[in-house]
Amino acid sequence: MTLYLLHIIYLVALAAEAMTAALAAGRRSMDWVGVILLACITGLGGGSVRDLLLNHHPLSWVGSPELLLVTGGAAILTIIIARHMYKLQRVFLFLDAVGLVVFSIIGSNIAIGLDQPFLVVIAAGMITGCVGGVLRDILCNDVPLLFRAELYATVSVITVVIFAGGGRLGLDHNIVLLFALGVGLCMRLLALRFGWSMPKFVYKHDLH
Amino acid sequence: MTLYLLHIIYLVALAAEAMTAALAAGRRSMDWVGVILLACITGLGGGSVRDLLLNHHPLSWVGSPELLLVTGGAAILTIIIARHMYKLQRVFLFLDAVGLVVFSIIGSNIAIGLDQPFLVVIAAGMITGCVGGVLRDILCNDVPLLFRAELYATVSVITVVIFAGGGRLGLDHNIVLLFALGVGLCMRLLALRFGWSMPKFVYKHDLH
Amino acid sequence: MTLYLLHIIYLVALAAEAMTAALAAGRRSMDWVGVILLACITGLGGGSVRDLLLNHHPLSWVGSPELLLVTGGAAILTIIIARHMYKLQRVFLFLDAVGLVVFSIIGSNIAIGLDQPFLVVIAAGMITGCVGGVLRDILCNDVPLLFRAELYATVSVITVVIFAGGGRLGLDHNIVLLFALGVGLCMRLLALRFGWSMPKFVYKHDLH
Question: Complex ipTM above 0.85?
């Protein structure tokens, strides 16, 4: 039942990711088709890369093409209601945090189902949570936020370690799930609120 | 027979895509090996991504490595005759349009052969038609033209919808093929001629 | 026995690639998690892309997740000892050259084991040797060095042609291996020392 709930939250988070990607596209004045494509790639790219790397076919959107309607529809909705969306900024930041955490948990859960070793489970969770945003930033020609932003990747890895570690210790699945979800979400929201970030590595010599 | 003709057109379009990629490489003063690599990636990248996503192995160039000779040879030819190529600008824009439409049709035809649902067929066609150019733009460190240019992605999606939709309605295969080819090609050439473009989505608020 | 030695050299080269990627991350002031991720992607990305394209599963790091500890550990070590690393610049350039040559040989050897045709063997070697650095450059938002730098891709292709060609001619495996390793390494080091480069293709007309 908790996994069913997780699926509902996944669809909401997928739409939210697609909408933030559509806004990023709008900031670069892309045309409507470009907006829809960027939304689909951002929302579904992380899971696709994970499935390719783990040889887990069919990919989510190949097996359930209606997911393309969710991301594409969210992009079109964004274009229509864009002028009111700055009011919803806080809602979006919250949904984006939910997306990061839920995508990470779902991704690691798939790797667990494939009996992958622990490190691969962690990697699968992080890839699912973070790669969509990296693809968005590459296609917008930015240095991916992931490598700089407030605890984004860190939240993903901690969420996954709690979820996969708790499962490995034989704890109750639903409790572990809710605990991982809660910790990840709190960390991300507190990081946003207080501007927390990981220490930076600054190196000024050129190798050549 | 029409499919055989399509294969010939495919090889010509593949060479044309490789040549436009080689010119893009020349505009950034890449070295000869870089030119050849960029031409191969641009020409064969779209089909490779489609085949990876659909788990359709071997990839075209793995099964038919002589395709690498077509793209690599086209790149070398471009380096040799570059100083005369600006005279052929119109020929290239025409061949580039042919490439877009033919790649899109071939890509969707492969998904149809794999019994994929309609939305996946559309996606497969668009990926085949458009991803090569996206990879070229990313490797040249540009925002991909796809997200801005005159009807590029739109032409691909309309071509594929006609081709795959006509097939689904049970219409004669050859007629549907030629009709999709004609409509796509005309749209792209008219868009180039008259500067048609999709409406842009402009959004000026920052999310953070 | 030579292949066992090659595996040891591979692990050293993998750590070296991860460390140069970590330095590139430091030059862009990425945070610690970003540094570790970039190191893993750079070190293991080339082999992963090769395995995806050849449908060769599981990927190296999925089958042997301890490779993630090698690249991640090398990144953390780099952060700790960074202030002393400019003294080791020559060591790094040497290890980077070793990495290029060894990755290329190992990649082509895997394609040979899969009975791929000669052109695909060459491509597999080049992809393994070069794609990690291309991914690093894309994620740092640079035009990939590969398309410009001193004989980088050229060294990879020549190494692989010697290694795979010698094997095809039935020459002794160990001798061919050492000869390919030696020629590739010398070429790369001489190119670095004397600033050798391939001729550039310069094209100044715009297509549109």
Answer: yes
